[in-house]
Design goal:
- The protein has 456 residues and is an alpha+beta fold.
- It folds into three domains: 83 residues, no CATH class; 247 residues, Beta-galactosidase, Chain A, domain 5 (Distorted Sandwich); 73 residues, no CATH class.
- 15% of the residues lie in helices and 41% in strands.
- It is built from seven helices and 31 strands.
- The strands form six sheets. Strands 13-14-15-16-30-26-25-21 form an eight-stranded antiparallel beta sheet, with helices on one face.
- It starts with a strand and ends with a strand.
- The mean pLDDT is 96.
Length: 456
């Protein structure tokens, strides 16, 4: 039986190493096959073990084409070809908790398990990420991460439980070959103040393919329903991607949403949290050694690390007892709720990219979107996100003083807005001028059709 695969781009454009999958109604054992295009180009196809059955075989390939491409499955690779084929390969890790470091052809990335020490360098996720196109490392220190999720657990209502910093993850290899790697994280979230958020587990699927300028992920969390920021929150989370470049610099200095950006500027909640830290340091009667340690580190509030502010009120840290945490965060919430919706915090509606570092608190809270971008106006470097369902809001930070940049799927006061279980595709490259076209391609994959004919 000869199998023919036809790829059609609904956008009638050009695809760059687009991952395409196809399933054949036959059991084929060999892990790697060649497909041949109508122009006699060889395409490497990797068998997907977990998607194949006793009666069918699934394959994945990364294909560059314009409009339409036709190919046929040809033959398995020889042993010599398998040893010589180009594809995703492992590199030596840099962090002690590194699970895998990959060169995907487009990215040099390092996935870590986390160490649950409660600091930035203990996070699970992608702790290093370098785009090979411009060779710029987006996470040089290893103290931040791409791919963490936070709300509704990292909220004042729940005592600021931070899953990436407070949790270890096990990582399962689902698929691993020269064309495609699929990893699945498994973790348990520490209990916080809210009873309805205790005992929750999560899984995260990460997918990388050869030479593809984007990667894919999906988050699953045990069902939950709670109230955050005075609103009912059922199965919605905050996904947060961080980037860093050092004080005085920004990897990304603009933000935009597809179709125009609607946003409010400033972060009253963060301001209220900082004010409560100052009040707590001077008025709390807590006598614990840990509180004394925090008080000493916060003697100079202006130069203290931001993490120290929220960590003081974190249930996991036990700097303060639970009663004091509830009381003080209750005050923060009440004040922040009022300030967030004051009339002077007007909504801005613009079709132009937003210069986030020029607004109060170097923070904006945009409204609903499924396609967003952060980019560097000088180099054209861009990070583009597409979600299969829109997030109801975002928090975008581009803080030049520290060089820290964030993309988060939460609204005001840490309220999570991204539905659990959506697909997230994230592209990285010199895309500032054509980011909307890239986002459209993320949203609309090529169509794949399989036909068969008897061999002569």
């Amino acid at each position: 039986m000869t199998y023919h695969i036809t790829l059609t781009d609904p956008m009638n454009g050009t695809r760059d190493h687009e991952p395409i999958t196809f399933t054949l109604p036959e059991k084929l054992q060999e892990p790697l096959w060649w497909a041949i295009t109508s122009e006699d180009q060889r395409i490497l196809c990797q068998r997907l073990t977990h998607e194949s059955t006793q009666n069918s075989t699934a394959f994945i390939a990364t294909v560059s084409f314009s409009g339409t491409l036709r190919m046929r499955l040809d033959r398995p690779l020889t042993a010599a070809e398998v040893g010589d084929v180009a594809g995703i390969h492992r590199l030596p890790g840099r962090e002690k908790d590194c699970f895998v470091r990959l060169n995907t052809g487009c990215f040099d990335l390092e996935m870590c398990r986390g160490t649950a020490q409660g600091v930035g360098s203990s996070k699970w996720g992608l702790r290093h990420f370098r785009c090979l196109q411009d060779n710029v490392e987006l996470l040089p220190s290893g103290n931040n991460a791409i791919g963490g999720f936070y709300g509704p657990f990292f909220t004042p209502e729940n005592g600021l439980i931070n899953p990436p910093e407070h949790t270890l993850v096990d990582i399962e290899i689902v698929e691993e070959g020269p064309v495609y790697h699929h990893y699945r994280m498994h973790g348990t979230i520490p209990d916080g103040l809210l009873a309805e958020l205790r005992g929750k587990h999560f899984t995260i699927d990460w997918k990388f393919s050869w030479n593809t300028p984007w990667f894919q992920r999906r988050y699953w969390v045990d069902d939950f329903s709670t109230v955050i920021n005075g609103r009912s929150v059922t199965n919605k989370i905050t996904v947060g991607d961080e980037f860093e470049s050092g004080p005085g610099k920004l990897l990304f200095d603009r933000f935009a949403a597809y179709g125009g950006t609607r946003y409010r500027a400033g972060d009253p909640y963060a301001e209220e949290l900082v004010a409560m830290v100052a009040h707590t340091v001077t008025t709390s009667e807590n006598q614990s050694p840990k509180f004394a340690e925090f008080r000493e580190q916060l003697a100079d509030m202006a130069s203290a690390h931001w993490d120290l502010y929220w960590r003081m009120f974190c249930r996991w840290e036990n700097v303060l007892d639970e009663t004091e945490i509830r009381e003080r965060l209750g005050v923060v919430r009440a004040r922040a709720h009022v300030r967030a919706d004051l009339n002077e915090r007007k909504w801005h509606l613009t079709d132009s990219p937003v210069n986030v570092s020029a607004v109060p608190d170097e923070t904006v809270f945009p409204g609903p979107a499924s396609k967003t971008v952060e980019y560097d106006s000088a180099s054209g470097r861009a990070m583009i996100w597409w979600t299969s369902r829109p997030s109801g809001a975002f928090q975008i930070v581009q803080r030049r003083q520290s060089g820290w940049v964030n993309w988060g799927s939460n609204g005001e006061n840490e309220c999570p807005e991204l539905p659990v279980g959506v697909d997230i595709k994230t592209a990285c490259g010199i895309f500032a001028d054509n980011w909307m076209q890239v986002a459209d391609n993320l949203e609309t994959p090529p169509q794949v059709a399989v036909s068969q004919e008897e061999k002569p």
